[in-house]
Amino acid sequence: MKTRQLGKTGPVVSAFGLGCMGMSDMYGPSDRAESLATFDAAVEAGITLIDTGDFYGMGHNEMLIGEALKNHKRDRLVLSVKTGALRDPAGGFLGYDGRPNAIKNFLAYSLKRLGVDHIDIYRPSRLDPDVPIEDTIGAIAEMVQAGYVRHVGLSEVGAETIRRAAKVAPIVDLQIEYSLVSRGVEAEILPTLRELGIGMTAYGVLSRGLISGHWTKDSGKGGRDFRAHSPRFQGENLEANLKLAEALSAVAEAKGVTTAQAAIAWVASRGDDIVPLIGARRRDRLSEALGALDVSLSAEDLAAIEAAVPVQAVAGTRYAEAMMTHLDSERGSR
After folding, report:
1. Catalytic residue among 27, 56, 178, 203
2. Which CATH number among 3.20.20.100, 3.90.1530.30, 3.40.50.300, 3.40.980.10 corresponds to the domain 3-330?
3. Is residue 56 annotated as a catalytic residue, yes or no?
């Protein structure tokens, strides 16, 4: 497994990370045994960065990972946890809580569910508009001093917020959506990260399956799959976006790789300071994604890929409007 360092002050991790959300939430029913087997396969393949959130399945994901960790050496893995999202019993999102005492409370629960004595990277999942980012990051910094957290991360915040947070404590990485069809970070956020020596963990590298080569008009029907309400997966938007996926598929086939591998390899090619998160919840999807590690893209390959999926060609925003309003990273760019 190749490795990359998260920022100038962060840990060295596997070149790809494992995003575990889909094992518990958001994408419809999942198979518990297959999820655990996928986790094991990922670690055996050399993945060391494990990403979760305390609100994924309302703690279910952390408990699942806690069980999986029993089969592996804890000190070889880097656990990244997002916090702060508030949800109701029906699974709806109620907003975010970045108050210092709330952050410390959420952390205590995460440590217990995961069955660990520290979390390697702890980050607010979104910016709480009612709490200065300095207060939230300051609370996590206190937990670093106390030994419960090793590093501080950020998620889905814009350049100004990144700068403010970095003045409070060393930030190792920003977790944010980045893919061929979600390139807004390139304008201001990515240059800011590089200026400050902060890495990126990129989620949604396949745009939630949209450009994986596996999605069709009939995918995702039934069950509690949030893509049923995602603008990019609706009506004419979906038709237009599947044409982009088809164009990418043609380039990938000519290269001798799968559509998903081409999309993941493109993200990985954007810099050694970027670690793609692979949201696999099945071993076959994990194996396919890991194949992207061996894909080398030439200048001609990159040009062909970007011609197939031009910047801003995607139809629809990445979240529904109600969720987009919570994204500090999207302010002024919609």
Report:
1. 56
2. 3.20.20.100
3. yes
